[in-house]
Structures are given as structure tokens and as C-alpha cells.
Design brief:
This protein has 175 residues and is of the alpha/beta class. The longest helix has 19 residues.
């Protein structure tokens, strides 16, 4: 049987999804009482992330690496002045951080965890994006040696510029 490109692509995506989901489980995961937690599996490539960052900021580089480990393709651009970019993308006043990213029509401000970006892209809310003001200790790129994470809230920026809680993190130590 001869397949066209569309059919071949569907079979490839299906096979990749099955292979990745099988690889996400340990051999005895069926017998284990603790479920295996893994990043979202999708045969579709994630959209590219464009990160605008201060050239002298080391934590920005660590956040970019966090995104890459989570499967994102990232282009990092060193920018001397970030405020015009933040204004253009609609980052609310007082909600800024040391870097600003763009992904698939959304703005991501600060050390937002990759899992929250995955959720944003899956849910596709009518919003400007996500913000994590400041540089909370223990957030991605701001990890502490003891693994502790200070409590912080990632906020969803609504179309009118107001914000609401999107996710809560922190208060626990890493295993």
C-alpha cells in the first residue's frame, strides 16, 4: 500500500506518541504505587520561544536552559533596553522581571516554570500571557543549593491588562 505525505505524517506522529509514552514509564511502573510524572508528550513540535534578556544577567541564561530541557526551541537575544519590549507586549506596570519572552502570540515575563508555559499553550486562554514579577528564590533560573522554593504566584495577564492567579509554587524543598 502506498501512502501520501499526509498519511505518512499521521502514522509517524502516532508512532512517536506511542514510543514516547512507552519510554516515559519505568519497566515496573504498572506494579508501582507511585505514578510516573513526566512532561507533556506531544508529537507536534512546540512553538519557538524568543527571549529578550539583559546581556549581563546569568539567571536569564539559566531560565533559557530550563526551557530547552523542557523541549522548547529558544532564541535568546541580548537587549540593552528591555522596557520598550515589555510595553509593546503588554507587560503590566510593576510586573516586570529581568527577561521577557514571546511564544505563539503570548508574552512570558520572568522566571515562569516551563510546566506553566506548557499549560498556557494547551489551554489557550484569551489573554496576553504569563508574568512572574521579580526573581523569586527557587524559581527556574533562581534555584537555591538546598532545593528550597519560596512561595510565589505565576499570574495570567488578561486582555485588559489586569492579572489573576494562574499557578502557585513553592514552600517545599526539592526531593
Amino acid at each position: 500500500m502506498r501512502m501520501n505525505k499526509y498519511q505518512a505524517g499521521l502514522w509517524l506522529a502516532l508512532g512517536a506518541g506511542l514510543a514516547l509514552s512507552a519510554c516515559a514509564r519505568s519497566p515496573d511502573s504498572a506494579a508501582a504505587s507511585t505514578p510516573v510524572v513526566s512532561a507533556p508528550v506531544s508529537p507536534v513540535a512546540l512553538p519557538q520561544v524568543l527571549v529578550h534578556k539583559d546581556p549581563a544577567c546569568g539567571c536569564c541564561h539559566l531560565w533559557v536552559e530550563h526551557l530547552r530541557k523542557a523541549g522548547f526551541q529558544v532564541e535568546a537575544r541580548d537587549e540593552d533596553i528591555l522596557n520598550p519590549i515589555k510595553q509593546r507586549l503588554g507587560v503590566p506596570h510593576g510586573k516586570g522581571s529581568c527577561h521577557t519572552a514571546e511564544i505563539d502570540g503570548y508574552v512570558i515575563e520572568g522566571h515562569v516554570p516551563a510546566q506553566d508555559i506548557h499549560r498556557l499553550l494547551a489551554e489557550r486562554p484569551r489573554a496576553r500571557g504569563l508574568v512572574l514579577p521579580g526573581m523569586p528564590a527557587g524559581s527556574p533560573g533562581m534555584e537555591l543549593p538546598d532545593g528550597s522554593v519560596s512561595p510565589y504566584t505565576v499570574e495570567l495577564v488578561l486582555l485588559d491588562g489586569s492579572t489573576q492567579a494562574f499557578s502557585q509554587h513553592g514552600g517545599e524543598a526539592a526531593p
